[in-house]
Specification:
Largest sheet of chain A: 7 strands, mixed
Distance between the termini of chain A: 25 Å
CATH topology of the largest domain in chain A: Nucleotidyltransferase, domain 5
Strand content of chain A: 15-25%
Helix content of chain A: 25-40%
Number of strands of chain A: 13
Pfam families (chains A, B): BcrAD_BadFG
CATH class of the largest domain in chain A: Alpha Beta
CATH architecture of the largest domain in chain A: 2-Layer Sandwich
Protein name (chains A, B): BadF/BadG/BcrA/BcrD ATPase family protein
Oligomer: homodimer
Largest interface: A-B, 35 and 35 residues
Structural class of chain A: alpha+beta
Organism (chains A, B): Terrabacter carboxydivorans
Number of domains of chain A: 2
């Protein structure tokens, strides 16, 4: 992120809006601190983009939002290198790149672009799917690549920023999210209940661990059937499964399956790309039984991944600097809109 | 249901409360008509048993409930054999057997027994899990047997009415219900989305059929993730899978899996019983690819099922007549409470 001083040192702003919050970072000659605000608010009309833009504007002007703002500290920059976090009060941003989860599912993405452009007043505004920002952040370049993100959910994305833009999975734990923490936790609870019932393919180790975490099995259905936080509750069981994989063959098989599923999604997202960079992100990759299974499957296909270099916020900042420094970035009507 | 005229011809009343409604039938010397009312109402305090008892009382006294009652017509009895459906107006019932789905999950089953006993005023009152009533109805006897019910959900139950009372599965589609219509529909949608994404084990036939039924895949997650009617929506996809099984190998494998899962649950419920009668009930059994797979798995285990003889209401009536005619039926603190 340091590199040579850019030839056009206008301030750029990167924003990443995800389930866990809104994160914002500015960059003039060096990266500023990462500022945060609460994340997506979903009202009757869907995601409230205007409220998010107002939060981002407040972060830019004052460095905080009422009741919610915080400073994570600068990434890749020492304390003395920090720049003022409020460029709007003094200068108009050259570029804003707004990365947002759920962008693909919004009916009117052009309206999002207008709202962000008007609210933050940059000379150039980009609205981008968090899949694209995550890919750029993880691979560290705007070029052929694919990434699979294995958090609570799981989704893979691959693109050459030209003809191929391919999302794989991300359907939620009921219909997919193969290899996600929610899917692994769900499979773990299923194996636990099969042991409880005396059915084949059960795991008494997982049954014991899950009872310690969640209480008696009779309570489990109401926790995960139709509650809004069912994915998070299921994902909370995944650490039991990865922890048991060393000694319990059923848990080991579930972790192997998760890693294989993630590799399949990643390979499919990359299929057809010319020498793509491959990466995997997300908390589940910290579990060796899953990560190793993923790498084995990639090796079988003659592929390998590189360590993920950064986050979706890093990717958004990368896109913003590219647009500032070259005057152009690739566009796509669903994934990457520029004004 | 006909048989010799009982030696003590007091009127007995059977009630079965399920998701699809409350059904009530009386029996003196012959079965009366089946009367119906709306089913379980779940309030803040759980199932409203008192309201259900009031509905049953109204059916007994007047033959209908306000706005909801209906007569299905007598089962196993011609029109001339019908008895008056309102014994409470003239005589006190000898026995009431109250079968209810969800009984196992109620904290205070003794309170249910009190409420039913006081509300309907029989000399003897029995409250029974619909698993037990369904077993007696399906096998036609109060003796060693097991039944698997494959409707929207799937649960197996086996008992000798003495030392073994075993429920298997019934955990809901997120955690189990293996072999249910919801589980089969969910697996079908997963296979459809894998085809959509270009992943292994997908089915383009199911993708095409599911798009016709539900619209574009992007709409599917919100239908089935956290909505209260997700099980019914998923079960609605099952007919697509069973219909495709003749020509699509993925659909055929899913139906084979469903039948095998149902057989495994049934065999486990019956394990340890002495010469148990085995039966299977529920709408999914009407699909030959599922029923045939179930029977193949049973045959591998040296077992076979008999055709289901009747419903949970029939089972409740059987229990009621047994208590009236012999003065005793088996008891169990969770499954079968008698006062």
């Amino acid at each position: 992120m340091s590199g040579p001083v850019p030839s056009r040192p206008g301030t750029v702003v990167a924003v990443d809006v995800g389930g866990s919050g809104l994160r914002l970072q500015t960059y003039a000659v060096r990266p500023g601190p990462v500022l945060t605000a609460p994340g997506v608010r979903v009202g009757a009309a869907g995601i409230d983009v205007a409220a998010l833009v107002a939060d981002a504007r407040s972060l830019l002007v004052t460095g905080a939002v009422a009741g919610g703002g915080a400073t994570e500290g600068a990434e890749g920059a020492g304390g003395d290198d920090r720049v003022d976090g409020s460029p709007c009060s003094t200068t108009r941003p050259e570029v804003v790149v707004w990365s947002m989860r759920g962008l693909l599912f919004l009916a009117d993405r052009a309206e999002v672009l207008r709202t962000v452009a008007e609210g933050l007043g940059a000379r150039r505004t980009v609205v981008v799917s968090d899949a694209v920002a995550g890919l750029v952040g993880a691979t560290g370049h705007i070029g052929p690549g694919a990434v699979v993100a294995a958090g609570t959910g799981a989704v893979a994305f691959g693109t050459d920023f030209d003809r191929q833009w391919r999302r794989v999975d991300g359907w939620g734990h009921v219909l997919g999210d193969a290899g996600s923490a929610a899917a692994l936790g769900m499979a773990g609870l299923r194996a636990a209940l099969r042991a409880h019932d005396g059915l084949p393919d059960g795991s008494t180790a997982l049954l014991s661990a899950a009872v310690d975490l969640l209480g008696p099995p009779d309570l489990w259905p109401r926790l995960v059937m139709t509650t809004a936080d069912a994915p998070e509750r299921l994902a909370g069981v995944a650490p039991l499964v990865t922890a048991a994989a060393g000694t319990d063959p059923v848990a080991a098989a579930l972790c192997e399956r998760a890693g294989t599923d993630l590799a399949d999604s990643l390979l499919r997202a990359a299929d057809g790309l010319d020498h793509p960079r491959l990466a995997a992100t997300g908390g589940l990759l910290a579990a060796a039984p899953v990560a190793e299974a993923l790498d084995r499957r990639l090796a079988l296909a003659g592929a390998r991944r590189s360590p993920a270099r950064g986050t979706a916020l890093d990717g958004a900042l990368h896109l913003a600097r590219q647009l500032r420094d070259t005057g152009a970035i690739p566009e796509h009507p669903a994934y990457l809109l520029v004004s």
